[in-house]
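Field log, afternoon session.

UNIT: design team B
ACTIVITY: writing a sequence onto a fixed backbone
BACKBONE:
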């Protein structure tokens, strides 16, 4: 059983020290002193009753037991982040209408939309691939929430009007 004294902050610090291999760098990034980080790592080693680091002339590297614990610490932190993201996405429902110009649609874009849908399954994605001119017409009729197409297909006043209701100009972008 993991000790209640090993909190997420201590795990985050441990992972950062393992990845950076240098207490001074981590201290500078976190705004803590090197001695405070060193004390935290010694406390963690004491709680686990294991040596987690091997000191080198350039910093520290995890021991074999340190590598094992690093895997678990990384998984614990990832699960915590995943839980928070999942709870936050529960309120992110609804639909998004996306227009994609044929000339800028790539396999990478479809893969990205697939990842978006898997991450936010409650969001309905309605993606259509059309010629830029047809997309420009749909955009001006407010039939799209997002359009990826050459901006030349959008009238300047449509761009200003859509921006005024909260859409960023970058949502209508292209070559």
């Amino acid at each position: 059983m993991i000790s209640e004294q090993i909190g997420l902050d201590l795990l985050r610090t441990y992972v950062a020290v393992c990845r950076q291999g240098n207490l001074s760098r981590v201290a500078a990034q976190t705004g803590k002193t090197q001695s405070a980080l060193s004390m935290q790592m010694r406390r963690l080693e004491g709680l686990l009753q294991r040596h987690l680091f091997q000191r080198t002339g350039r910093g520290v590297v995890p021991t074999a037991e340190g590598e094992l614990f690093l895997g678990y610490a990384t998984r614990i932190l990832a699960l915590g982040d995943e839980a928070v993201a999942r709870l936050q996405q529960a309120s992110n429902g609804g639909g998004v209408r996306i227009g994609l110009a044929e000339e800028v649609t790539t396999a990478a874009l479809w893969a990205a939309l697939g990842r978006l849908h898997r991450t936010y399954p409650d969001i309905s994605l309605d993606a259509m691939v059309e010629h830029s001119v047809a997309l420009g017409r749909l955009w001006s009729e407010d039939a799209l929430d997002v359009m990826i197409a050459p901006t030349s297909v959008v009238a300047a006043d449509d761009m200003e009007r859509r921006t005024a209701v909260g859409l960023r100009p970058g949502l209508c972008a292209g070559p």
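LOG NOTE: The mean pLDDT is 79.
NEXT ACTIVITY: expression trials, pending approval
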